[in-house]
Amino acid sequence: MTEIRPGIHQLKIPIPDNPLEYTNTYLVRGDGECLIIDPGMNNDAAFDALQRQLTEAGVAFEDVTQIVATHSHGDHYGLCGRVKQLSRAKIRLHQRERELIQSMQTNAEERWQQSEQWLRLNGVPSRELSKIQKDSHGMPGFTTPTLPDIMLQGDETITVGSFSLRVIWTPGHSPGHICLYDSAQKILFAGDHVLPVITPNISLQSRTNTNPLSDFLNSLNLVKQLDVTLVLPAHEHVFHDLPTRVEEIIEHHEKRNSEIIDAIKTRPQTAYQIATKITWMPTLGGTTFKKLAPRDKRMAVLETLSHLESMKIDGRVDKSPRDDTIYYRRT
Ligand SMILES: [Zn+2]
Ligand SMILES: [Zn+2]
Prior knowledge:
Blueprint: E1 2-5, E2 8-14, E3 22-30, E4 33-37, H1 44-56, E5 66-68, H2 74-77, H3 80-87, E6 90-94, H4 95-106, H5 108-121, H6 126-136, E7 150-152, E8 157-160, E9 163-169, E10 178-182, E11 187-191, H7 212-224, E12 230-233, H8 242-263, H9 271-275, H10 294-314, E13 317-322, E14 325-330
Parallel strand pairs: 4-5, 5-6, 6-7, 11-12
Antiparallel strand pairs: 1-2, 2-3, 3-4, 8-9, 9-10, 10-11, 13-14
The structure holds zinc ion (2 copies).
């Protein structure tokens, strides 16, 4: 637990079996108000870590007056339900994330089958597909079924003591991802939108998904305009130079586009085939598709698809379905 600024504590909540290791949970306090941002994953180790670090900061669960999650991923939203039960604080989440949680709860099996079909359509071979599906199953289970109490749209202001946090809707990594911005103190709570070392996963989840990569790039340009001197991300470490980091991430995605174009230089390929030719996690030293865990292979294919779809809209690539499989080629 670290006091970043008077009234802002950063708590480290563990994420098992994940190179990120921790979610950075933030505690913002003032005038009897106490806000928790992204309480972390729903398991006992995370809960114990949260409780211990709250105590260190002199806060009991009953003191918590507001809960906000930047998005619905398990490592952020997971513990919202348990914290709400103990504190009776209301949970705030963007409307689009609520829809995601709801559809996961009501159509879990159907969504699961659709996602399998989607991967198959994009060239994932059967032997790989069963491993990927097996490894990914249970992922939504990390999230408690609690639905949020207050739906955000973007542009609301959340007040905690002297902090005035504006909700900035930043779709891309997740459709209802939000950042919180305090313009007086020039602080941005960035969630997973802008991280100092890695780039967040941008996935094209299904045929009905639109253009998450373009949404993400627009959201990056949106936060780049803000006057910020301190970025508080949900993973890794705090940093200061937001515009430079935004530029680096945009450049990373441009490089990946070039890698993809290179991969389809000679003949049409499926998203799966293209994903096997890309260097993954370049900022962590780089790895091949083959070495990724099955769960990460899924992310890699969906991320490749987000690039392909965005370049299709730009007119740089074209789709050609053949024998129930989608191939991409250069225009
Ligand atoms: Zn996330
Ligand atoms: Zn995260």
